[in-house]
Amino acid sequence: MPKLALLLATLVLAAPTLAADPSPPVRAVAGVFPPFVMEEQGSLTGFSIELWNAVAARMGVPTTIQLVPDTPAAFDALRSGQADVVITGHFYTLERDREFDFSHSIMNTGQQVMVRSDRQLRADLPLRPYLRLLFSRSAFLWLLTAFVLVILPAHLLWFFGKRSGNLVPRDQGYFHGIFHSMAWVTDAMLGQAQTRPQDKIGRALFIAWRFAGVLFVSLFVAKLAATLTLEQFRGYISGPDDLAGRKVATQAGSTSVDHLRRLGAEISTYPLPDEAFAALRGGEVDAVVLAAPALQYYELKSGSGRVKVVGPEFRKSDLGFVVPLGSPLHRKIDSALVAVREDGTYERLRERWFGRE
Fold first, then answer.
1. Are 138 and 228 in a shared domain?
2. Residue 56 in domain
3. How many domains does the chain have?
4. pLDDT along the chain (357 residues), means of 10
5. Is residue 3 part of a domain?
6. At what angle do helices 329-342 and 345-354 cross, to 10 degrees?
7. Which is it for strands 287-291 and 247-251: parallel, antiparallel or unpaired?
8. Whether this model's pTM surpasses 0.85
């Protein structure tokens, strides 16, 4: 009997210890994306980090946070079961929603465009668009057309004009004669020819050729003026509508990629925002497109005087934490997010990192 009593007492004393057996921590992953996720002096900070810590405290669960190199790596960690939640804060999309569950919104924001501060100044230089046009494919095609319009009539003139000697001297060989003919045809095209054919057929062809030349020159001048005007305007990037044909940097895996492709931009992707910013500063790209808070934070903290955020926010959507489809964490995270909004924690964090709205 004493042995039985001793055994029961041992089990009673051990029960709290067995019940207190800690559950495994929630494995969170995040990519560096200031001001949402940053690494400073060996520790993680940022809006998303602090918000997730508040959410985890509300849920009463331990958590670990591991950095991943980019957005695709974060989603791969969810797919492979190596992570339970991505806490950087990603835009909700229908494609992503088919594969993952999104929490309640942690922020509603859009994307924006950032350019170098000196880019607008360089666009004012008149020689820049002229040289770009001079060595463009369009200029090459126009010059090639002009050459064809001159070389063919010049051969006809040299062949038939030698007989009369009126327009082409009879004693000239091919090379001297053809260059003489090309000069006369060019003068005729520009309305500067000093001599004219004497026969009726030659005069008729001369009038037709002068008309064709005037038409060609008029079209060429109009095209030149329109292109130079367009180049002047294209020098200014004031929003997403000015990105067509421009070299634009964004983050790998960003929702910006598909939108920039539809705009006709030349896209360069980088694993980290800082790499995209460095490409912009170095002149490798014309603009950067990312989430508006990230660009505004960079301009304020690191890029003052070197970069400038331009244009309105576009393609506004919700950012949220991401969990695997059907994860039991989904409802717990949503309930905790509601709680931190109701007790004012969310607003204090948002004001701390982004200021008052």
1. yes
2. yes
3. 3
4. 40 40 84 93 94 96 94 94 96 92 96 83 51 67 74 69 60 67 70 62 64 71 64 67 92 89 93 93 94 92 86 92 96 97 96 83
5. no
6. 80
7. parallel
8. no
